[in-house]
UniProtKB/TrEMBL annotation, chain A:
Pfam families with a match to the protein in the record: WD40_Gbeta
Keyword Repeat: yes
The protein, known as: Guanine nucleotide-binding protein subunit beta-5
GO biological process: signal transduction
InterPro entries: G-protein_beta_1-5, WD40/YVTN_repeat-like_dom_sf, WD40_PAC1, WD40_repeat_CS, WD40_repeat_dom_sf, WD40_rpt
Organism of this sequence: Gorilla gorilla gorilla
SMART domains: WD40
Key words of the record: Repeat, Transducer, WD repeat
Amino acid sequence: MATEGLHENETLASLKSEAEVGGSLEPRRLRLQRGTDYGLVLPVHQVAERVEALGQFVMKTRRTLKGHGNKVLCMDWCKDKRRIVSSSQVCHEHAVTMPCTWVMACAYAPSGCAIACGGLDNKCSVYPLTFDKNENMAAKKKSVAMHTNYLSACSFTNSDMQILTASGDGTCALWDVESGQLLQSFHGHGADVLCLDLAPSETGNTFVSGGCDKKAMVWDMRSGQCVQAFETHESDINSVRYYPSGDAFASGSDDATCRLYDLRADREVAIYSKESIIFGASSVDFSLSGRLLFAGYNDYTINVWDVLKGSRVSILFGHENRVSTLRVSPDGTAFCSGSWDHTLRVRGMVFCFPVCERREDG
Amino acid sequence: MAAGPAPPPGRLRAQMPHLRKMERVVVSMQDPDQGVKMRSQRLLVTVIPHAVTGSDVVQWLAQKFCVSEEEALHLGAVLVQHGYIYPLRDPRSLMLRPDETPYRFQTPYFWTSTLWPAAELDYAIYLAKKNIRKRGTLVDYEKDCYDRLHKKINHAWDLVLMQAREQLRAAKQRRKGDRLVIACQEQTYWLVNRPPPGAPNVLEQGPGRGSCAASRVLMTKSADFYKREIEYFRKALGRTRVKSSICLEAYLSFCGQRGPHDPLVSGCLPSNPWISDDDAYWVMNAPTVAAPTKLRVERWGFSFRELLEDPVGRAHFMDFLGKEFSGENLSFWEACEELRYGAQAQVPTLVDAVYEQFLAPGAARWVNIDSRTMEQTLEGLHQPHRYVLDDAQLHIYMLMKKDSYPRFLKSDMYKGLLAEAGIPLGTKRRVFPFMWRPRHSSPSPALLPTPVEPTAACGLGGGDGVA
């Protein structure tokens, strides 16, 4: 036993120094990821001129959902393109001393027959949906995931039977819904993980997560290894979303920028920011073609970005408190934003002015 | 009544980068040369220097950031809500009026990021001062807070009253103008830090987050940890990177190809259900529909994944494979997907089922995998897990993708589907004319849209006009 221990220590020291060599090269590699380092022009500007400008959009709110009596924290679309699940801060009116429970994450199951949600309770629970008004949904609740800190994000994989979660304890995890078994855990973030998104790839094996350590990390679901990491943001990453082709992903952060990272180039290729945008982006999503990036901000606005040109297409007002969540519908006909002003707004494009001599916005 | 724990002092500036940015804006607004025009404001009989009007603030912001007035007003309103600019008259409501209403810049002493978190003792003193000045007639919520604080800090209440009286006495020594200004500044600070019920609490943050500095993540530096690190660095250093210019070309072609299929960019026919309240689009594009639209059939040609993800597309592809006697490939792939994403308890059963049907020698629907992969797979089946068929699945997937799929796209079957597929006509025009940007026409100099018929130039057909 003693020799085993010694052997362990030896290996540990040599492993540690080997890792340190790799680690010493890491900062330089990470700097190369930055789009604007060494005075390089941001890659997206190289192609921006070749792209036809978009018209001027008019997006109108078509539905305002006021059912929540409290801050809306998260929402997700059902695959039927019409239904939405949303979660909010739940306050217990009777017990004044009890803290409010924030349900920070929710997701619709692919079949549309169940939803998952969780938050400050450190758990992710699955509720089968029933349209029978007499049935008590809470009674059928199943606790699936258990973390040691708050649940920040959750998502079903391709079926109702697996859930991927991200937590304030710095880890992500893959769970089997039926048994609650932990199938795989993902360690690597140095601080709370705030968001995740599954890759729309052919082999369906990876996902990206963003955290308070300013890093966005791409993981292999099968092995639990981190495959790629990106660290160019200057503050917490609140939201990550894959570009529809799966070759890139966008991130929204408290540093008031959204960035596009390309997986094959292994670097940041665009920064979506403006001097007048001061507040953090809480939630981002692409339109179906990936040409538009919608981002909800903590200053109550939604900015729409032209992904290819790197410029802002339009700014949308309407919410009276910070926009906490934003998702484009599965068929891309509309997008929904949820806010701390207790409402959800579904917006669609009403019309688009043709391209003309437009004042360059941004 | 903050929800969630407040961050400890000192971390605020790091945690709330927007405060720093607002402060920078406000400082540049006060620049003597480039800043907002300052003037002296007359209030009753006093003259207050260094005041600005709401409209000047909005104009300055619009010019500085090259944004619309609406956006400048919004940005200005946010600055006022956070107490960086306060109104001189009616300091009780932190709103920005884009007119002659006078405002002033908050002194850095009272900036949100300087005095954080607001101390209860200070609030007690402030309320006590107000109480004394108003001879006991405080506003409702302030009265509640005052009573509550009195109970809470009862032991130090003499100190509170003494401080309050002292501050009031010192204030009397000042000039009327200064007294007014300081009162406004203080009131603004407390409106931000202790908002009245109903007013938005701009300082409310979500549940406390751990940052890098105060990380709650425990990383046990075991041998495993270092092995993973080494593996990661090795991969990172050895990774072949594609030139970003090539990647960007890929985005250009992807966006260009998908643009017409993106309802938020190009609209959709017959109409967007959310805009027109007409379900027709959803009915026509239901997951399993007998007659898929032309756009939908076109999408099957974009990538193999798109074809498989569409139930109608997949069904047609299955038919096609059936004609080529290779339908078992798709079935095998589907069974593997079921295994990958199925319940953990089902894994052994599913693996057995797949083996019986597709892999066993003489199986009913034997799939043709290369011998090496087959050997490895059969070996792995001794200890079944959900990824045990990954290699075989990938092999079959690539076979279909490289071989069957291109032939499907060239086949009469697909061409027939494409020809048959219809393009829905646009619905009756309503108040807002729904425009598509004609693909090959030059940019129109007109600012207002004139109703344009969807002509053949759009490539959308239906040139007979609108129903």
